Amino acid sequence: MRSERLGETLLPKRIALPVFASDALSSVAYAPDEILLTLAAAGLTSYALSPWVGVAVVFVMLIVVASYRQNVHAYPSGGGDYEVATTNLGPTAGITVASALLVDYVLTVAVSISSGSQYAASAMPFLRGHEALLAVGVVILLTTINLRGVRESGTAFAIPTYVFMFSILGMSAWGFIQYFFGNLPQAESSDLTLIPEGQFNQGLVGLAGGFLLLRAFSSGCAALTGVEAISNGVPAFKVPKSRNAATTLALLGGIAVTMLMSCIVLARLMHVRFAEFPSEQLFRNGHSVGDSYVQDPVIGQIADALFGGFKPAFYLVTFATGLILILAANTAFNGFPVLGSILARDDLLPRQLHTRGDRLAYSNGIVALAVGAILLIIAFDAQVTRLIQLYIVGVFISFTVSQTGMVRHWTRLLKQETDAAARRRMQQSRVINAIGLTITGSVLVVVLITKFTRGAYLALLFMALLFVLMLAIRKHYRSVRAELAEEDDKKGRVLPSRVHAIVLVSKLHKPTLRALAYARASRPSVLEAVTVDVDPDETKRLQGEWERRDIPVPLRALDSPYREITRPVLDYVRSVRRESPRDLVVVYVPEYVVGRWWEQLLHNQSALRLKGGLHFMSGVIVASVPWQLHSSRLRLGLENQPAPGDVRRGAPPPPSDEGDPNKKEQNV
Predict the structure, then answer these.
(1) At 550, which CATH number?
(2) pTM for this structure?
(3) Which string of b and e fits 372-409 if b means at least 16 CB within 10 Å?
(4) Which of 105, 157, 364, 433 has the smallest set of CB atoms within 10 Å of its CB?
């Protein structure tokens, strides 16, 4: 796609919603599981508090959505939390937020796809034990789709996302209808007894009970991941960008809240049992369910009970849920590359992440995200319960720092604004962001306390490593820029006194003759050919052939008692530089151009080592003289085209197309 077609890739709201909101919407599939799983440690009585834990999560989500609606209006350039923090709190805060977001995006892909693979394994038992392999394959598939471009991937994922939304909302509506008519069925696990862990035999009492409630709340807050993606993706929206992004945020908040609370309440009404260690905590008729018991996810249990007599509906809900968990990773595939591009622009990540690929997508960022997610999936064996402990730390760090920056943003603008109406709007926005700061900061403290020893420390370690890495990259780019911008009057304007050309020779063949011809055409002050005397007999034959052909360039043979090739050449070039420090030395290296990757392993290894050593010498230029072998000319379609100098040397001309009227017409 040509660069001027970038406008065609912008997204309308109906496509932007599934593209940027699939992560937050998909959390409905595992946030209820994590809440019930955590509360299960205290036994069945603790399940009575699950709706209230859900209400607390919903409250935080609504506050965060309202806060980020202010962000997209104030900073529509796509930097999101990173730009807010950098502008208002300084570069250190910006890098902190950036490292947190990058880690969170990678975890989004790993958690979502791992959860989707577990849903797939519950629907198709033959996949059990192969969840990690399935997850890796799905990451590769999503990477391929996203490399086609943002709009194409959004269009491909829009229908499955809407199917998930309507299937969950439809299932919830049908469940509440049955409840109000007194026909609500019970979940398959409703007859199981949930045994509390030893420290919670008395239920949720004391400090341990309060800590468990906080842990359940922090696990449920995984539902908030993905909200920040819209603020990073504002440039991908159609105009008016900020208004469309804010509307999409509102839709996201309303739909996600409705779906999450519906699933939590239905799970409570249908007496769903969900434990972290089923064989130890779940009992039927006084006996443990054993290791063979298969514990289906919460939504799977609800759908199975509600649609027990109509299997197509059950399979629709299960399939849509598994699919949305996989597609939720697409939010990260849209957010990570954009953020990576902005960080690369600011010298915090490699420059390769800043450029768009052939399809106007940030291809290098997409591939980098995929590699990171695959490594995590393999390391944690696609186990969601282990991965999710790392998950929400980064997003709440970015939430908290971003809201702090927004409060300072409005405070700064209020000092300059004199219009009363504008001041009222700014004050309202500041109040919203201040509430967001208070809530997200409190949740961050809870998350750190409850999840630190369960794996959150690993996420913090990854963030710290990224922080240090980005500082090192910025230092490198700045030092290179400063070095290249230096103006030295003496070095910048003094030209070399002479040019000393050296042609490296191993054999007397066509590549060597071409290198000699090119070197002579440059008219250097000194021209000589150099070979390394590894085999005396071979060297004598080369010198004899050189004299027999009467080549008008002196040939120097360098001694190599240890049969090395690279070191004698480097030592000789250094000696030339020492004798004439103001001379420019140009080393011509004949090289083969091959058409197959495996052929490269058989050629040019000595040339590669020589060039590697010569590149570090001051005052030395390395000139590679290519010779296209037959395989490379076939690959490029040049097999019938003459090489430079062929006509002068009397080579026969290529076959003519004059007898072929079709080719003649094409030529015309």
Answers:
(1) 3.40.50
(2) 0.69
(3) bbbebbeebebebbbbbbbbbbbbbbbbbbbbbbbbbb
(4) 364
